[in-house]
Design goal:
13 strands; de novo design (two linked rop proteins); binds flavin mononucleotide; Ubiquitin-like (UB roll); 470 residues; binds iron/sulfur cluster; Rossmann fold; 17 helices; single chain; alpha/beta
């Protein structure tokens, strides 16, 4: 039975708002580090099994089963790294910073247990550059944990002596450094560019060694799994997603905020009961369910459970289309609906200008594209420019089709999923709110003229101003 609002235990946000709980004495009083003894008495594979049993799925965006990911580390690896992804830059997402600020010792305890399970002796916490306050709290917490001997000192375990070092590393503030391979490059002191996969980090990651990258919220759940057992954690959630879920509720809500909620709670209940409904009693027009890279839901799709599988497969969510009547194919004819992503839920009321919202999102991704691959570098810029002119009521005939075709051309053709992060919401907004875009096309204007791509101008001629397109 999944937990409900009434009987759900608070796991990862239990110390949110508790003064002083981010310092080690109060944190210890409130239960921090209590699970280390139990974990050290277990063999590492038994911990991995418990995490597998718990149905814990990654909270960083993709919802990948954590225990399964841990088993991808090649057996007998001599050096293994654990890297905590605290980059948190997806628009609409603001949960990891609450854990970092209010409960850094819960995260450190999770890191210690996970590192022991993985055979890792040096873990890194990579914090987004702009999170100055959280990085300071996290650094102090790590120093306190060193001083108390929880890290940096050898301890006896079921597998012999174990010692872990933890380094807090601040990023320079680029969204792309949240992508795991880009993050690893940044940690190595290189330009934060995504790497081609395979090889996956679990096989060849930080400094060429097997590496597990996990999100802050994911790892903050591990102590509770050791305390109460994988079965208990699994039963709190739905069939394939264990535990609770943090939702970052923003937009047109009476009580926006960061809430730890039952996994699979219907979106309508979150909006109406948890967040007190929409100001002025207005109707909901659209909801972005998992950070701005996810296709939006419309007002008829609010009874969906907020859970990884449901948001991808529930047939009450209309498939995203490439053009009217043609679904976006995720492979094997599987349609794209939406995803739970990073838990960033943005609610928009009936008066929201969704074309302007979409243009804003496109500008974000165009700005954050690392520029390494052409479909993303060029395509996100086109989407931003075309969508911005449509939002200004200056759209040209054919712009709606052009945006859909550019977005479709990006998806699946790039090194990392940032391309899809722009293409999916673009196609999603066009599928569900096409009329709003079409209404902004100025019939008197000429369609976008076909032009040669930059660089293909005739020899001896100057390239067109601005480089070519859109
Ligand atoms: C463009 C991009 C940005 C990402 N940003 C983050 C981020 O800020 N935090 C995060 O945990 N995962 C982010 N991810 C997902 C990570 O690549 C990776 O899947 C995740 O950290 C794995 O942790 P998990 O299994 O615990 O979810 C991002 C992915 C992409 C493609
Ligand atoms: S998809 Fe975009 S962000 Fe990702 S590697 Fe290519 S250019 Fe860079």
């Amino acid at each position: 039975m999944p937990s409900t609002l009434e009987n759900m235990p608070k796991i990862v946000l239990r110390n949110m708002g508790v003064d002083g709980a981010n310092k080690i004495d109060k944190a210890t009083e409130r239960g921090a580090y209590a699970q280390l003894k139990k974990a050290y008495a277990m063999q590492p594979p038994a911990i991995v099994d418990e995490v597998k049993k718990s149905n814990l799925r990654g909270r960083g965006g993709a919802g990948f089963p954590t225990g399964m990911k841990w088993t991808f580390i090649p057996k007998d690896s001599k050096t293994v790294y654990l890297v905590i992804n605290a980059d948190e830059s997806e628009p609409g997402t603001c949960k990891d910073r609450e854990i970092l600020f209010w409960d850094p010792h819960l995260l450190i305890e999770g890191v210690i247990i996970s590192a022991y399970a993985l055979g890792c002796t040096h873990a890194y916490i990579f914090i987004r550059g702009e999170m100055i306050r959280e990085a300071a709290v996290m650094k102090r917490a790590v120093e306190e944990a060193y001083a108390k001997g929880h890290i940096g000192r050898e301890v006896a375990t079921a597998k012999g002596a174990f010692k872990l070092d933890v380094t807090v590393h601040r990023g320079a503030g680029a969204y792309i450094c949240g992508e795991e391979t880009s993050l690893l490059n940044a940690l190595e002191g290189k330009r934060g560019w995504p790497r081609l996969k395979p090889p996956f980090p679990a096989v060849k990651g930080l400094f060429g060694m097997p590496t597990i990258v996990n999100n802050v919220e994911t790892i903050a759940n591990v102590p509770a799994i050791i305390d109460k057992g994988g079965q208990w954690f699994a039963e709190l959630g739905t069939a394939r997603s264990g535990g609770t879920r943090i939702l970052c509720m923003s937009g047109h809500l009476n009580k926006p905020g960061v809430y730890e909620l039952p996994m699979g709670i219907p979106l309508r209940q979150v909006i109406d009961e948890v967040c007190g409904g929409v100001p002025g009693g207005k109707k909901v027009k659209a909801v972005i369910p998992g950070g701005s890279s996810m296709p939006p839901l419309d007002a008829s799709e609010l009874d969906i459970p907020m859970e990884f599988d449901a948001l991808m497969t529930d047939e009450r969510i209309k498939p995203v289309q490439v053009r009217p009547g043609v679904n976006f194919d995720m492979g094997g004819g599987k349609p794209l609906r939406t995803m739970a992503g990073s838990g960033g839920v943005i609610v928009m009321d009936e008066d929201t200008d969704l074309v302007a919202v979409c243009a804003r999102i496109m500008r974000f991704y165009a700005n954050e594209s690392c520029g390494q691959c052409t479909p993303c570098r060029e395509g996100t810029g086109w989407l931003a420019r075309i969508c911005t002119r449509v939002a200004k009521h200056e759209g040209r005939p054919g712009d709606v089709e052009l945006m859909a075709s550019v977005a479709h051309g990006i998806a699946g053709n790039t090194i990392c999923p940032l391309g899809e992060a722009a293409a999916w919401p673009m196609l999603g907004f066009l599928t569900k709110f096409r009329g709003e875009f079409e209404a902004r096309i100025k019939p008197g204007l000429q369609p976008e003229p076909p032009r040669a791509p930059p660089g293909l101008h005739q020899i001896g001629q100057r390239p067109p101003a601005g480089g070519g397109h859109a």
